[in-house]
Known about the structure:
Layout: E1 11-17, H1 21-32, E2 37-40, E3 52-55, E4 58-61, H2 75-83, E5 91-93, E6 100-104, E7 107-111, H3 115-125, H4 130-150, H5 154-159, H6 165-170, H7 175-182, H8 186-192, H9 208-220, E8 223-225, H10 228-242, E9 246-248, E10 255-259, E11 262-268, E12 271-280, H11 284-289, E13 304-312, E14 325-328, H12 334-342, E15 352-355, H13 357-360, E16 372-380, H14 382-390, H15 394-412, E17 421-427, H16 429-436, H17 450-455, E18 467-469, H18 478-493
Parallel strand pairs: 1-2, 1-12, 2-9, 6-14, 12-18
Antiparallel strand pairs: 3-4, 5-8, 6-7, 10-11, 11-12, 13-16, 13-17, 14-15, 15-16
Helix pairs in contact: 1-10, 1-18, 3-4, 14-15
Amino acid sequence: MTAPPVHAGDHYDVLVLGAGWGGLAAASLLAKAGRRVAVLEARDRAGGCGQSFAREGFSFCAEMQYLMGCGPDGVVHRWLYELGLDEAVTFNALDPEGFDRIDLPGFAFRFPKGPDRLEAALVQAFPADRAALTELFAILRRIEAELAVSGIDLKRLERHPFEFKETVLYGPWPVTRVFEHLGLSPRVRAVLAGQCGDIGLAPKDEPLLCLHALLFGYGESAHFPKRGMGFFVDRVVEYLTSHGAVVSYDTPVTRIAREGDRIAWVDTPRGMFSADLVISNIDPARTFAMIEGAPAPRYEQSCSCFTIFLGLDVDLATRGFGRFNVWSYPEEDLDAATARTTVDHDYRDPSFFLATPSLYADPGALAPPGRTTVQINVLSDFEWFATAAGEGRHATETKRIADEILAAVERRLLPDLRHHCVVREVWSPVDLAARVGLARGGIYGARLDLQNRVLHRVSRRTPFQNLYLAGATAGAPGLEGVVASSMRLVERLLK
């Protein structure tokens, strides 16, 4: 079945603004339910942070290197099953013996699959910390048991706070404070917090709830699509168009027109579109800014990152790499290490995340035989790069910083990395914001702390009867988070 063409002035059952993962999940489930759906995407491709691009035989994904919720019982798998795509889009599990490796000066530790195995591995590596580690994992398991019933349901928490005793007591604590309270040694603290870049916060700012999500989420499900993120996105878009939906690219929304407490239509350079129901996968602050008289939400964006994409003429599997990521730190004080780039803007010896996605996917899916894709991320301050762009220094600073990061990777991990580069593409936080559509380059939507996710939490519901929000800020970050939020939203709308 061929999708009908999109025409300005057409009226739909549902308009979805933005083809990020939250928008794609909501649109696909509503199309399955028989609704006439149109998706308006500002850029030339779908997928948001999961969009892909090709360079000289290599395929790269913007900002998704490993995923939660893709196992047989996971949210992403359930969504694909509902669409009948669970056999078309399949996943490889990252190495269960160690899917994340934390590199510290003179020491490395790999995170095995499963919280029980992780605790045992930590106790074996740090026997002097056994008692403190046992207490920490006991707290995390009690939080897991409390959240297993309903997740972080704020209304239920307000009505029944004693059902969430450990979550309320420990969840908001920064992990640095928890580690100090338990008396953990500096090195084991650095290892436990080594995935902090996954939420864009230094340990001093990272709530224990986020550490719980990382250790229990990725610990149970760390996956990557067998044929890459681009293939995944394409299958979902094909599902939409085969079910009568239209996906209009290069169609940015410029105004959202209201009539009283309802959204009447949206304006785009292609013309006006209207629908009975509107779901915005655009950043909530941007969404409300396009509505005359709408209240402005109060939240701070998460950190951004500097990204280097490389295509290498060597197979890194022959050099000990495999289906695992590397988190590399120049010192054991991760707060100080993170501040080097996010506060001091010093990239001469940064913390960095390095992934080899072509080794996670099936052979040949993302790189030619004997070659490897590499992605390097460094947490960064969007404002610093925006200022550089305003002063005409952006290109020069971006090149200098990329060279400094690559020099650090060569010193600490891959000595001849640049010698083997046949493809190199660099995105500063400003580039990331422009190419993917992230507000201020924020990689996880609203900042993942108590103030922004609880006190100033953005709801999926809005003051307008027919407008709802999807995406990381109104839901939860990551593919699992935005898909789960959109599934709950659609379930409610279809009642």
